[in-house]
Amino acid sequence: MRGDERPARVEDVHDLALGMPHVTVVHGSSGNPVYQVGGKSFVFFRTPRPDAVDPVTGERYPDVIVFWVPSESDKLALIQDEASPFFTTPHFNGHRSVLLRACRVGELTQRELAEIVQDAWLSQASRRRGETWLRDNPGPES
Questions:
Q1: pLDDT tens for residues 77-130?
Q2: Which of 8, 83, 135, 141 could make an SS bond with 113 (beta carbons 3.0 to 4.6 A apart)?
Q3: Domain edges within the chain
Q4: What 3-state DSSP class applies to 74?
Q5: Whole-structure pTM over 0.90, yes or no?
Q6: Cβ–Cβ under 8 Å, residues 22 and 38
């Protein structure tokens, strides 16, 4: 198995986000990391909130990660498949982001997670930074 085909880990979220250019990390009031490019968040670890709860117990999910997406259609593509680990809540209606519980990160490969983090970064980076990164990091189809 190639390294990028192994199951993703939460540590990969941190490594991939920090590996993108011009990234800063700020910490929320609970110490949760928020990864930013140009002062705009693109990945962050959310504190437990009343809109993301276990449907059986009603307990707030303690491990939600938010990823920005390029468009509403990208968001729908990620959340429409019931087998997908990505989800949203009414709180995020109209917001270009998807949610993923850290306990489900391993349902993605490291490569799939890398694409999600890169798309998140690209959706928040300036046009110039995005174009530069895309030029310097051609995809496998190039």
A1: 999 988 899 999 999 999 999 999 999 999 999 999 999 999 999 999 999 999
A2: 8
A3: 3-125
A4: helix
A5: yes
A6: yes
